[in-house]
Design a protein that fits this description.
homodimer; about 675 residues; alpha/beta; eight-stranded parallel sheet; 14 helices
Chain lengths: ~675, ~675
């Protein structure tokens, strides 16, 4: 900082929250969310300070102002609501408020019986100076106030006038222009559409839904799945890569290096003579078939998400057209993907560290824009942590410039800081470790990290109980109760969640021995799913998605609050809207094998529940109703029946009343 | 950040600790202290990273490098020692280490029995590239290594060579020049002389030590106190302002507005016809008397600290010479200090917000430099929180430019953030709330804040049990035990501490009713202290200061670690040197009225004490010795005898041995 010989710019503004990495990255919000800003604001001495929060949409010129409130220990706060997508900016200004300080001193002196004539003159001078700045009628009115105070002939009336809210308001309208401290950065908010925060995804492989069992499915034949998905209440249909699949080193069933002639290969081995990332795998149909699929999906209120897997099969046209985009070995062979000693021969990485980086980056951007032009607004990005952060930051910014409604989901199962860094780079949503968090302590700690630390400002969790890559141990061994509890946890802890189906709703639990991979994985073969198999949980999924849609408390992740329970197998939490018009209490039995019971501590005070009267809790899963009272209440969950309650709390329904009306 | 089309600068360096307010302020150290630096360092993908901490004294051009170590969760650390006063700079650089990554992959592939001929060629290319950068003999040696690997005729030998520490070390000496990430800030360390961290201050009023009782003391007559102070073991003699005292509105005894003719006035009402901040109060003597006093003090190894009180009496020469430096009221009177409805008519503040700010700031700087030229290197600054932060930041920086050995102590008893902000502005030491922290919980919480948070990086606490302004309730009512426990707490919790004497060692406890002010305060009258009064604690003070000097563990504040005790009246803590060669355990009975006893939990594992054998604890206050064993040990303190133990722990002295040697 330059130090001049001015001590009049006395107010310090520091320690702003939220501010990510010194303002280097944006915080994230969806339309309608609040941005609550806090800062340490203080000056030397004892003068009073006025502080205002400034904000604007980057497309507007004028700042909006919100007065900040002092809370405690020189900490101030104010908030604003973001109303449209794009980038908002915010900052703070503050100044020593000489007029309010003078008012306070005057009040004290007058109360103590000290003479105030000279004080009134000092105040009049302050008002006159302000009058000079004021335009229009305020100018004259302020001069009149100054004149009235100056006379000093009737202290009682004049002190009353000096302290009046009328004069205070008038002065407030004309803050000083000089010696105002302005925070040295404009911080930014990336505002996205509401689906960035609230969505239910369903992932499936179209090729498994052919005309007849065993036939390769197409976009046309797999349309039949759309009403099935929509009826279960999902919003998003996410498809694994839809591009031509390479032949060279194609993987056979169960990831075998020697495929059978009919093995379809992994959709992530992208590129063949039929084309690359802008082409459709011929066995799935044509581009217009795909577009018809997208339209049909929209008719069911389903949005289609595509998979961005920036890697190639050895047959990808890029290999011949742009050999400079790949790593070549001294023996003339191309460097395939590996994690020594493991080899992934069907996949070759793009070499971002090439001297021709600009052309490669532009090409990949053109891939995204190609599908954006076809109407796609959701991209699930495969393994983003294996490409440079700078690339994603550039790509996402470039795409959002013209298309702020495009959302990117980061599939980075890697070290926490790398996952968070990708979110800072611009990903709208992120896969998480939820998939492996099973115990009460693990879940509580993880949710605390995601929702109670600065991470919540830029990292939107997306909870997946399973994926085509991951069949967790818990689902392998826990049976139907495990699928149900993981479903309820994913869908209620996080407002974004997804399942890989139909493997999930059909309770598929057979894994490659000692691994968390599906046996006979759909990644390498066409499956024949029996959607009407009796052992399925479609009904519960449907119910859970209905509950999410009807209860706004479940449409955000930031409001989760864990409740005490005296049983470590019972995870309990509340979610509420800020006005408490919607209160949801979730209780999950984490033990898939045994009935668990215990006492849950309901925070009646926080929830403004009258502790002296019963209140109704309505289990939206089972339909059962209970009258509870006070904070300690008993729960018992038999996982063989249903391992969870999702209670809606009716604070004001009393036992003596008829409560049919809320059904 | 600018985004170019380069993904090769892949390493992220962020979340550096220590870094104060985004590098805006320096951290502080004294000569010989360590700077331990941590940072999150990571990249996309799975390649290995090398990171180095860079540091240099600002007067040197070349950076020193320290390799950083990965601890956990992508957190790295390294440290360096500061060796001379002035400013050090530090930053971090890191890069993807392709050679080490290649070595790791080679090892895995070879272990798995995969062919490595091509791998060896790739490594040879990496080595050749490095050889091109290398100067001198390394150039040739690297080329030879590359040649040896390239041949690929004897994989076993070649893999062994490729992984050899010889080649690794050679490659490490020639890190890449391109695509190296360098942290975007150079952070700074303000390094001060050791006295900034370890000092014992004694404050007294020279005017109370005249030739005869009741006579105004002088620098000459008060020299007699120097051996007394030195014998008690203090390092610093701090004098209230020594400048001419104003007559106008001079305060009488007990802060009365109507003084008697002989009342000496408050030394903080600076300035009269005899001069201002660069003059000596005539009743104290001359400038040369003062300089002789400073020399005599030095002969007793005592440094003299002066009081910088940047305020004036109405008689200060500045008022006539520079009326523009003061605030004038509409009735032509000068604005005196006030905190409505309280008035301080004998003091008028300087108006830093004047249009002539530059001249005023320069004048105040010249005041400091005037006394620096007279040999003063310590300044206790009165009420710095009533002047702008920018002023202090400028002043301290200006003075330190030429005189890095000058230290400033901030006497800001105000809101915490203001106190901390002054420390950031450059104050070497700061008064604290210790004066009012009495309970175990309060003391532990406060020390945690001071030593376990970022605050420790820039705020050096200075603990005062009393000052001329403050006689705390606890000392008013707790008697001799209260003085003893507060002495031990101040002198052992904090490596900087001070007392206002002789009021402290003579146990003066009579206060203005219902206030924490001394009755018949020395601020307004000449006192006649009986230094040989039988009720004094000089002996204990002397002992405590000796203990501080002999035990390096007590010469820093950052190492305090509280121990569990099962009695809330017993405060227990340890202080140790990093190598555990000096271990001190302090136990204080906070209850001045009753004997308290309990069990203390000694962290034997941390202290590397063998839990299976007794170890000796030697109370350096009483001389008593005890054999303790394991973690739980009994203590009992009768405050009427001594409310504290200061144990030196002899880990290796066994009961069966003769332990006289360590006496």
């Amino acid at each position: 900082m330059e130090l001049d010989f001015e001590g009049r710019m006395r107010v310090v503004i520091e320690n702003i929250d939220p501010e990510i990495d010194q303002g280097r990255y944006s915080i994230k919000r969806t339309v309608g969310e609040l941005v609550s800003v806090k800062a340490d604001i203080y000056a030397d001495g004892h003068d009073l300070i006025t502080a205002v929060l400034l904000y604007r949409h980057s497309l507007h010129q004028d700042w909006q102002e919100v007065p900040m409130q002092l809370t405690a220990n020189d900490r101030w706060r104010a908030e604003f609501k973001v109303k449209k997508t794009g980038v908002y900016l915010y900052t703070i200004k503050a100044w020593v408020d000489h007029f309010r300080t003078w008012q306070q001193d005057l009040r004290e002196k007058y109360k103590a019986g000290q003479p105030v004539q000279v004080e009134l003159k000092i105040g009049a001078e302050l008002i006159e100076k302000t009058a000079c700045r004021a335009q229009g009628p305020d100018h004259e009115v302020l001069k009149q106030w100054a004149g009235a105070l100056k006379r000093g002939d009737d202290p009682e009336t004049q002190v009353e006038a000096a302290l009046s809210s009328e004069l205070s308001g008038l002065m407030q309208r004309h803050p000083p222009k000089k010696w105002v401290s302005v925070y040295d950065k404009e911080l930014s908010v990336e505002v996205e559409r509401p689906q960035a925060l609230f969505s239910a995804w369903y992932e499936f492989f179209p090729r498994s839904f052919g005309q007849k069992p065993g036939q390769h499915g197409t976009f046309k034949t797999s349309q039949k799945l759309l009403p099935y998905i929509a009826e279960m209440g999902f919003d998003v249909v996410y498809l694994p890569p839809i591009h031509p699949i390479g032949q060279t080193h194609r993987k056979g069933k169960n990831n075998q290096p020697q495929p059978q002639p009919n093995d379809p290969g992994s959709p992530w081995a992208i590129g063949s003579q039929q084309g690359g990332h802008k082409s459709i795998h011929p066995q799935l149909g044509t581009l217009s078939d795909f577009q018809e699929f997208v339209q049909k999906a929209a008719q069911h209120d389903l949005e289609v998400a595509l998979d961005l897997a920036f890697q190639c099969s050895p047959d990808h046209p890029y290999v011949k057209e742009h050999p400079e985009w790949f790593l070549w070995r001294p023996d003339g062979s191309i460097q395939h993907a590996e994690n020594p000693p493991k080899k992934y021969e069907d996949i070759i990485p793009l070499n971002i560290g090439t001297d021709d980086g600009q052309a490669l980056w532009e090409e990949l951007k053109s891939v995204v824009l190609f599908w954006v032009e076809k109407g796609i607004r959701l991209f699930r990005v495969d393994n983003p942590h294996t490409k440079p952060f700078a690339f994603w930051e550039w790509l996402i910014r470039e795409v959002k410039k013209e298309h702020p409604d495009v959302l990117f989901l980061s599939e980075a199962f890697t070290r926490p800081k790398v996952m968070y860094r990708l979110a800072k780079a611009g990903f709208s949503q992120s896969y998480t470790y939820f998939t492996w968090r099973n115990s009460k302590h693990e879940l509580q700690e993880y949710l605390r990290e995601l929702t109670q630390t600065q991470i919540r400002q830029y990292f939107r969790p997306h909870f997946w109980p399973n994926t085509p890559d991951i069949l967790p141990q818990f689902l392998q061994h826990g049976g139907r109760p495990a699928f149900l509890s993981r479903l309820v946890l994913a869908a209620t802890l996080s407002s974004n969640y997804g399942i890989y189906g139909p493997a999930f709703e059909l309770l598929v639990s057979e894994a490659v021995p000692k691994k968390e991979e599906y046996l006979n994985s759909e990644k390498y073969e066409i499956k024949n799913w029996d959607l009407s198999a009796p052992e399925n949980i479609k009904g519960v999924i449907t119910r859970v998605n209905q509950i999410r849609r009807k209860n706004p408390a479940l449409q955000t992740t930031w409001n989760v609050s864990f409740l005490e329970a005296d049983n470590d197998q019972l995870l309990c939490f509340s979610k509420t809207t800020p006005d408490l018009s919607n209160i949801v209490l979730v209780v999950v039995n984490l033990d898939p094998f045994h009935t668990q019971s215990g006492w849950v501590k309901v925070p009646v005070e926080d929830l403004k529940i009258d502790p002296h009267h019963p209140y109704l809790v309505h289990d939206l899963l089972s339909g059962d109703k209970y009258f509870w009272q006070g904070s300690r209440n008993y729960v018992e969950l038999n996982p063989g029946v249903m391992p969870a309650h999702i209670f809606k709390v009716h604070r004001k329904v009393r036992r003596e009343q008829d409560f049919d009306y809320f059904m």
